[in-house]
Design goal:
By secondary structure, the protein is α/β, with parallel strands linked by helices. It has helices at about 5-15, 45-60, 70, 80-85, 115-135, 155-175, 200-210, 230-240, 265-285, 300-320, 325-335, 335-350, 355-360, 370-375, 380-390; strands at about 20, 30, 35, 65, 90-95, 140, 145-150, 180-185, 195, 215-220, 245-250, 290-295. It has one domain (about 5-390): TIM Barrel. About 50% of the residues lie in helices and about 10% in strands.
Amino acid sequence: MPDKIADQVFKALDNFDVELPSWGFADTGTRFGKFFQAAAASTVEEKFHDAGLVHKLTGCCPSVAVHVLWDFKPGQSPKEVAKLARKQGVRVGSINPNVFQDQVYKFGSFCSPNPKARKAALDHTLDCVKIGKESGSNLLSMWLADGTNYPGQDSIYRRKKDLESALAKISSTMKKQWPGATMLVEYKPFEPAFYHTDIADWGMAAAFARAAGKNAKVLVDTGHHLPGCNIEHIVAFLLSEGLLGGFHFNDRKYADDDLTLGSIDPYAVFRIFDQIVQFTFETGKKPAIAYMVDQSHNLKPKLEAMVQTVDEAQKLFARAHLVDRKALAMAQKSMDIVAAERILRDAFETDVRGLLAEWRLTHDLPVDPLAELRSSGVIAKLGKDRAAARKARGEVQASSYA
C-alpha cells in the first residue's frame, strides 16, 4: 500500500474515537430474564475500570456514556463520578436520562397524558443537564420509550406538541446552563410501544431537533430501523442538513437486536462510514460526529464483546478511507455503475489488519487487542475478585455457566 494512503488512514484513525456505554459492561439479558457473568461490572467504579481497559487495548475509547439512575448514587457529586472515571484513564461521556423505568412513566414520559409524569420527566432531565455540566460532559442523549399500544389510546397530536415543548425547554436550559453541549435526539420505530412510537424515525427526530434549537441534532442507532431501511441514505441526508449528531453502533438480524458491530452485516457499517468520508470529500467539511457503542451482548463475555466491536469499527472506518474518491467521482460522472461499485467493494474487501497493526505499534498498543485480552487472564481474575466483592457487600448473584 502506498505510503501516502497509509498516512491518510493513520491520520483518520488518530481522530477516530468510540464512546463506550457503562451499561455494556454490566449484567444484561432479555425481557424474559437476566443472564449473569462472574466478571460483569456491578458498580460504576468497575464499569469505568473495564472501559479504561478497553481504551488501553484499542487506543480509541476515551469516554464512557453514563445512565444517570444506574451510575450516580443518590446525593453523589457528579464531580466525584468524573474523578472515578479519570482514575481509570477515561472521562464521562454522554449523559443518558432515564424516563422509562419509574412506574409514573407507565403511559409515557414527556408525552404522557398524566401531567405528573411529564413534570417528573422534565425535572429529571433538567437535573441531568446540571450533572452533565458538573461532570465535564458535552452530550445529552435522549431516548424515549414513549408511544401507545392501541388505536385511540391517546391523542398523537397532543403528544407531539407536549414533546416539542419539553425538548425546547431542555434545549433552552442547556444553552444557559451548559453552553457548548449538544442534545442528541434518538428514534426507534417500535418497542416497547407497538401501535405508535412518538419519535418513530429519523425524519421525526430531525423535526424535533430543529424545533428544539441549534444545539440539538439526531442520533442514529444502527439497530433502530425497519428491515430493508437504507441507513446510509439517512446518514447522507442528515449530513447535508447539518443534523447528524452521533451514532449508537450495534448490529441486528431482525430488529433492535443489539449485537456486536459487524457480526451480521459489516458491509452495512462500511457503507455508513463511506458516506461520511464522501461528505468530507465533496464539501471539505469534517462533521463533528459522536461515535458511540450501544449493544446488549448478554452471551459473549462483556470485555471481549466490547473489544471485538471497537476493533471491527476501526477496521471498517479504515476501509472507508481506502476508497479512491477521485476514481469514484469519475465513474459516477461517466455513469459507469459497475466501476463505481467495484471501487467500493475493492476498499471493503481490503485486508487492513496489517495496516491497523502498524498504527497500533506507533501508539504502543497491542497489535491484536482481542488476542491480548483473551490471553491475559484478566477476565477470570475479575470474575473471582468481583464475586468476592459482591459477597462482601451482601449481594447475591445467580449462578452462571460462564
